[in-house]
User: What shape does this take?
Amino acid sequence: MFSKEQKRAALHEKLQHLRSITNSHALNKTSIIIDASKYIEKLKQKVERLNQEIGSAETSSVDNPLPMVTVETLEKGFLINVFSAKGCSGLLVSILEAFEEMRLTVLEARVSCTDTFRFQAVGENEEQRETIDAHAVKQALGQAIKNWSKSGDQD
Assistant: This one.
């Protein structure tokens, strides 16, 4: 049987864990829970937005054969996703050339070219004095994809 003190210690430990997961700087229980609630709402909105993007990519892939690009700003750098419902021969080279032109360093990447094309990368700006925003990265990748599409390298 747990004593009141053991229960209080267990609750305190769980609140501190919740605080660390949600990046809360709050000190009292109520504020930690409020911060956690806000964090959950942000996650719900992000999931909803990503589901909408996936849905629009699936419907537009029939009408528009060009891959879909999303770019999110991270603390240091960007999270870049490129998706196409079909294989895209030569597209990876075009994407990496665009990275090079923007002076983005690929810190981590995952690529799948089986049946569909998926590219996910974390990149950061090599030259910190030149700031690049997510919109500029998305535009540059979009242009690289259009150039790739016109070049006839695609399947």
Residues 29-63 form the longest helix (35 residues).
